[in-house]
Amino acid sequence: MKYLSLFICVFIFVSCSPSEQELFDAGVENLESGNHSKAVEYFDRAIEKNPENTSAHNAKGVAYFNMEQYDEAIASFNASIAVDSASYKPFYNRGNAYLEKEEYVKALQDYNYASSLDPGVIDIYYNRGVTLLAMEEFEDAILDFEMTLQANPEHGQAFFYKGKAEMENNQPLEAIESLSRAVKIDTRNGAAFYLLGITQLSALAMKDEGCRNLQSALQLGFTEAKEWIEEFCGEE
């Protein structure tokens, strides 16, 4: 009986110990529900069971990213890449962390590599476009936003950033077209109304249209529009 009792206790202990997959799944569940710190705990426990669980390292990095702990996120993505460098996901995710840190060259390198691993992932082109825009590489940024829009013609933010890049690249007609599409898709985008209004006023002297869009921007809380309205739009 003594040996039988010991066997039963050991069996119960083992059966109650969650597996690596169960820990990973619990981490994903917490990640998806917004319990990011709890998710990290589960991913750490999964990694303790298998230090080469590249998915757990990557998901842990996503949890840290969502908590805006970008250095910790990068460390986790590095660990995922060290185990398996064939997946685009940790490179893409690490690029996002570098973008948030405004380390644009590193972000661009990661997006380029992620794209080489899986050129069909459209989010890579959009985020790389944002990076290139920040680097003032306007023509390349426009190309990436065009790639994004080919796949998703209703991507309002891609139209917005494309218009911004075109405006900076001295393409006012193209900028107006892109920004007009942006505000049609997202009528709450005050920044797009603002850029559209100032482009219409400054580049083409379209006073009525420009002032109307600036008023929309101001109504949406984009206070930068007020100065333009006061100077160019009179009582409108």
From TrEMBL:
Keywords of this entry: Repeat, TPR repeat
TPR repeat residue numbers: 20-53, 54-87, 88-121, 122-155
SMART domains tied to this protein: TPR (SM00028)
Pfam families: TPR_11 (PF13414), TPR_16 (PF13432)
Keyword Calcium belongs to the record: no
Keyword Transcription (UniProt): no
Domain of life (superkingdom): Bacteria
Protein name as annotated: Tetratricopeptide repeat protein
Organism: Litoribacter ruber
